[in-house]
Amino acid sequence: MTYEELLTDMALKDERMVVMTAENRALVRNMPQTLGRRFIDTGITEQTMVGMAAGLALRGRIPVIHALAPFLTMRAFEFIRTDVGIANLPVKLSGFIPGFLSDGNGPTHQAIEDVSILRGIPGMEVYAPADEDDLVKMAPAAWTSQAPAYLRINHKKGNYEHAPYEPGKAEVIAEGTDVMLLVYGFLFENAMAARELLTMQGLSAGLVNMRSLKPVDEEAIVRAAGRSGLIVTIEDHFKTGGLYSIVAEILLQRRLTADVLPLSLGERWFKAGVLSEVLAEAGFTPEKMTQTILTHLKK
After folding, report:
1. Hey, which residues does 96 pair with through a beta bridge?
2. Which residues pair with 262 in a beta bridge?
3. Distances (CA, A) of 22 to 49, 77, 79, 150, 165
4. CB 160 within 8 A of CB 197
5. pLDDT digits (tens, 9 = 90+) for 127-153
6. Based on the number of CB atoms within 10 Å of its own CB, is 207 exposed (0-12), middle (13-18) or buried (19 or more)?
7. What's the CA gap between 168 and 145, in Å, rounded?
8. Which one of 40, 124, 134, 224 has the fewest beta carbons within 10 angstroms of its own beta carbon?
9. E strands of the chain, at which residues?
10. Structural domains of the chain, ranges and CATH numbers in brackets
């Protein structure tokens, strides 16, 4: 099942659902004729769309709104914070091409701080599925929650069949005592390949799909800190405010210590190009991630 098929099915069963877009129909192009007046395209006006969605939510609707991730999360941030966040309205934000998925676009189109700014809003839920299978298994939880929610859209096909989503729980793929890889979103597949390379080097390497970043599975992080010699956070995001920060916050709150290696963009933008070039230049191919981890372990 695709994202569009799932959303269509749920919207037809629940008349409260309204699908909106700021002239970004890539995921929902067949829905206007199906939903009629419950499909609204505001044009390239993300702020207006969020304001309208808040008004609809106040009247009992469940708006699922779509726009390019950088413009939804940054251009419309004040509206999300003020109209949706303060009122704690069940507006569902679908951010298209977040992180490295905006590969061919320049820095203005890179949503690589979206997790940080959205999880900073009280009550906002943040989801980051690994691929389309993970997306369709997680989306119903986001849409039926009474809270506002941000879904980091990843509709790419994957090769892994994910477990059903349990709200607030990570998906443990494998346990490891030497290295535990914590990853979310698009980089899941590369992290799986890196784990295999680490295993070939004789290491006990684990992998966890941190598919829900808020609420986050704190116990999965605490277990990793207690059982693995090294935690590696992998994300197509700045180091500040993303998964590395989440792990650091939880360890500090629990008064725990751990060796944590962040594989992130750090304090830099990524260079635009085709996706394979972006991954290679930024150091996120399985081979480059593996080498970074091995170098850290040797130190």
Report:
1. 68
2. 233
3. 7, 14, 14, 16, 29
4. no
5. 999 999 999 999 999 999 999 999 999
6. buried
7. 12
8. 40
9. 17-21, 39-41, 62-68, 92-96, 125-127, 149-152, 171-174, 179-183, 205-209, 212-214, 230-234, 260-263
10. 3-152 (3.40.50.970), 171-298 (3.40.50.920)
Exposure letters 260-283 (e unless 16+ CB within 10 A, then b) = bbbbbbeeeebebeeeeebbeebe
Each residue's pLDDT, cut to its tens digit, for the chain (299 residues) gives 999 999 999 999 999 999 999 998 999 999 999 999 999 999 999 999 999 999 999 999 999 999 999 999 999 999 999 999 999 999 999 999 999 999 999 999 999 999 999 999 999 999 999 999 999 999 999 999 999 999 999 999 999 999 999 999 999 999 999 999 999 999 999 999 999 999 999 999 999 999 999 999 999 999 999 999 999 999 999 999 999 999 999 999 999 999 999 999 999 999 999 999 999 999 999 999 999 999 999 98
Q: What does the pLDDT read at residue 299?
A: 84
Please, are residues 180 and 224 in contact by the beta-carbon 8 Å criterion? Answer: yes
Residue 69 sits at φ, ψ, to 5 deg, of: -55, -45
For the sheet with 17-21, list strands across it: 39-41, 17-21, 62-68, 92-96, 149-152, 125-127, 212-214
Backbone CA torsion sign across 188, 189, 191, 195: positive
